[in-house]
């Protein structure tokens, strides 16, 4: 059986070094192979090694057949954004809320660590209704960003957006 090779890319090597230092300091005994893989995967913006591996496998797999996009839904949700792409209001429908969160997720830098203040400032820049705490909480609850237990650090989690979210993101970039 041949070994599958997964390419590793970290946008910021200092984040990798920091993650390794923290991981090594936290343990009294030497770290195991899987623990080191998890530290490296988290430093690159993934939840753990399994998340990293699944993302790598998804990139090498043949692309799925394009799913039908509900353009009417995309147009309805797009009305929640102004001409500059800022979220005007928080939609009442959960399906619309999720699409709006994907748009915000797409604007976060890959692999970037945000403090609570930085993520709040980022969200304030991208919405008009002045409730960045709601958006921050929803991004975390929907699994689009990881959050330290104390709320001090946030990071975008790499996922493939659903077809409607991709269509909305493209529509708003125009």
How would you explain this protein's 3D organization?
This protein has 174 residues and is mostly helical. It folds into two domains: 13-60, no CATH class; 71-173, no CATH class. It contains eight helices and three strands, in the order αααααβααββα. The protein has helices at 13-25, 33-43, 49-60, 71-78, 94-107, 116-125, 132-141, 163-173; strands at residues 113-115, 145-147, 153-156. Strands 1-3-2 form a three-stranded antiparallel sheet. The chain is globular and about 55 Å long. 24% of the residues are buried.
Query: How is the main sheet built?
Result: 3 strands, antiparallel
In which order are the strands of the major sheet placed? Answer: 1-3-2
Q: How many DSSP E strands? A: 3
**Contiguous helical run count:** 8
Distance between the termini: 48 Å
Q: Whole-number radius of gyration?
A: 18 Å
Short précis:
This protein is mainly alpha-helical. It has helices spanning 13-25, 33-43, 49-60, 71-78, 94-107, 116-125, 132-141, 163-173; strands at residues 113-115, 145-147, 153-156.
SSE inventory with pairings:
Blueprint: H1 13-25, H2 33-43, H3 49-60, H4 71-78, H5 94-107, E1 113-115, H6 116-125, H7 132-141, E2 145-147, E3 153-156, H8 163-173
Antiparallel strand pairs: 1-3, 2-3
Helix pairs in contact: 1-2, 2-3, 4-5, 4-8, 5-8, 6-7
Task: List the keywords.
mainly alpha; single chain; 3-stranded antiparallel beta sheet; 174 residues; globular; 3 strands; 6% strand
């Amino acid at each position: 059986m041949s070994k599958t090779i997964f390419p590793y890319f970290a946008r910021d090597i200092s984040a990798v070094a920091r993650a390794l230092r923290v991981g090594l300091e936290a343990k009294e005994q030497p770290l195991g192979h899987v623990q080191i893989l998890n530290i490296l995967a988290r430093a690159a913006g993934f939840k753990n090694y399994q998340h990293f591996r699944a993302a790598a496998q998804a990139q090498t797999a043949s692309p799925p057949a394009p799913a039908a996009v509900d353009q009417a839904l995309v147009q309805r949700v797009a009305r929640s954004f102004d001409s500059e792409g800022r979220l005007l209001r928080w939609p009442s429908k959960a399906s619309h809320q999720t699409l709006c969160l994907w748009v915000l997720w797409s604007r976060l830098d890959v692999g970037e660590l945000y403090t609570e203040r930085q993520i709040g400032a980022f969200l304030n820049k991208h919405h008009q209704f002045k409730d960045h705490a709601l958006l921050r909480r929803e991004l975390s609850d929907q699994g689009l960003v990881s959050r330290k237990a104390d709320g001090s650090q946030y990071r975008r989690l790499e996922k493939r957006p659903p077809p409607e979210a991709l269509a909305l993101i493209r529509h708003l970039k125009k």
